[in-house]
Amino acid sequence: MILVYGIKEELNPIKAKLSDVIQHSMHCALGLPEDKRAHRFIPMDKQDFYYPSGRSDRYTVIEINMMEGRKIETKKALIKSLFSSIESELNISPIDIEITIKEQPKHCWGFRGITGDEVQDLNYKVNV
């Protein structure tokens, strides 16, 4: 699951394209299939969205929640792919993008009525 935060006037017009860019990076770096897109956009009023100095109103926060198991190199490749793709496709400078990856043990995930450590039929690999 991916959560994306930004100022609503900046985030709303680019949500669909940003979702495509994020999913492409997730596919290239992690092998995640297109139909596993789980993106949540949280457009915020400017007065409710504080961010570091030196950033513009295009400042965007991307939180990536995933089951643990990916290699450090894989996660770094994902982050770098996101910076590069967002800059080239949406003209948002890396200074205005913050990315965090939050990993939880597989048993802490619940979907389709089971926990992540019980699932046997994923059509992608977690340990990459």
UniProtKB/TrEMBL annotation:
- Which Pfam families has this protein been placed in? Tautomerase_2
PANTHER family noted in UniProt: TAUTOMERASE YOLI-RELATED (PTHR38460:SF1)
Any idea what this protein is called?
Answer: 4-oxalocrotonate tautomerase
Q: Which organism is it from?
A: Catenovulum maritimum
